[in-house]
Amino acid sequence: MDQKPQPPSHGLAACPNPECAEPVDPRDRYCGACGYDLSATVEPPGGQDRPTMPIAAPVWPEAPPRDPGSLSTLTQHPGELPGTDSGGRDLPTVPVRTDGPVAAPEPSAASAPSAPPTPAPTPEAGPEPVPPSGETVRGGGDFELAAPDPRAAVRVDPATAAPGADPGEPAEGTCVACRAGRVDGDGYCENCGHAQPRERDHMERELGTVAAVSDRGLRHHRNEDSFALTETSLPDGRPATVAIVCDGVSSAHRPDEASAAAARAAGAVIGEALPRGTHPQQAMHEAIVAAAEAVTALARTGGDGADAPPGGNSPACTIVGSVVTDGLLVVGWVGDSRAYWVPDDRTAPAARLTEDDSWAAQMVKAGLMNEAQAYADERAHAITGWLGADAYELEPHTAAFKPDRPGVVVVCTDGLWNYAEAAEAMAGALPADAALRPLHAARVLVGHALDGGGHDNITVALTPFTPPPAGAGSS
Questions:
Q1: What is the largest CA-CA distance in the chain?
Q2: Do 468 and 474 touch, CB atoms closer than 8 A?
Q3: Which of 5, 226, 243, 268 has the fewest Cβ atoms surrounding its Cβ within 10 A?
């Protein structure tokens, strides 16, 4: 989560959302945990009455105890608590058995089932069948939603399964938690109520030898990172691999759109430039310029495609990318997303290939603080360079390297390197077989950040590097 220089303080120490109450920085625009708009919290003038009536909070029963050895708490059924249904009728209070199959209750005048009750299975009938997708399991109450055990896989009839479908995976539109309920339009399962993951909450891609993983993390309500992977070739047919990673600036508007637009534009430009014979370092420069133009274009339109309202904080993001081709390693960046070099031989030193455009980096470069002091300051992640309409001045950084040994190029957002800042720490977190299994290694690095707290979105792309044979020429 990068930040531009911050607006005036709103004076809040914690999120005003009563269901969140997460500590917030006085200059945050949105709560990092739930997305609450902090600038919308305005105190009324002194003495002015609020035109609302106080509503007493409901008194909920205590949560059921957790069964030893179980993965979840005991299920609480509507029939165990007094209440009424949506029509004002009393809920039935038939006891619910939890030690075996339950026969459907006799229909009553207050609650008549719309279909004939299903008799309890006999011992000879085998296990109780799993309900079809979208249906609920009824027991002792008309509104009972007894979700199937998520640990039990849904049995799919191969004759009715879609061609090529994996029997172990839920069908499209089926809940990922209970694997039986239908997901409705608001993204929740109609059977167990589980919220479904959004498309960008966790993304993975493997393309030949390059792989990337992006995750929302544990503290943010959405993923504002994005990435692009490209495999292309030089005019003479030599392969080239490109990895682009972008981090949306959370204090700006629509940071998720900014990172996606930048990654998409940079990947497309560099993928077209290399086959034309453009030098990889020049192609990287052109890609960053194109990414900046794509983010700037977002400032002219709103999220729905209409013209953007005047004022506001323009969409913005950082970018880092790498090109690996024929013994040459090129990196480019703007902001504080980073690139690392980790040799396969871990006795050789790893290296950080980029220099942050940030307040902390400026303090260290000026000799005013050491790295430990600078990155411990609350202003450490205030960036001094970004892509966007209100950037001070676009200064793409590029660098070319020719490592003399095989290794792996790591490009990532600060959601990862905050938990492995030094090159040695990044090398220690990277699996030894990363060059052979880049997707697995990327998952391990994301897991490392999640285990460390997952305070930010996490994105990493890994590209193996192989030097040319001794005596061979290179571009």
A1: 90
A2: yes
A3: 5
At residue 331, φ and ψ (nearest 5 deg) are: -125, 150
Q: What angle do CA 254, 257, 258 make, to 5 degrees?
A: 85
pTM comes to 0.62
Burial class (CB in 10 A: 0-12, 13-18, 19+), 433: exposed
Average confidence score pLDDT of the chain: 76
Residue 151, Cβ neighbours under 10 Å: how many? 8
Assess contact for 10 and 39: CB atoms under 8 A: yes
CA–CA dist 334, 258 (Å, integer): 14
CA distances from 153 to 75, 156, 187 (A): 19, 9, 22
Q: Which residues pair with 3 in a beta bridge?
A: 382
Q: Give the type of residue at 386.
A: W
Please say whether the beta carbons of 204 and 197 come within 8 A.
no
Residue among 287, 425, 117 at smallest CA distance from 295: 287
C-alpha span between 122 and 358 (Å, rounded): 69
CB of 371 closer than 8 Å to CB of 362: no
Amino acid at 148: P
Mean pLDDT value across residues 345-373: 92
Please list the residues that pair with 320 across neighbouring strands.
Answer: 245, 333
Say if residue 213's pLDDT is above 70: yes
| Residue keyed to tokens 């950084």 | 397
Classify residue 395 by burial, with Cβ atoms within 10 Å: 0-12, 13-18, 19+. exposed
Give the integer Cα–Cα distance in Å for 260 and 366. 34
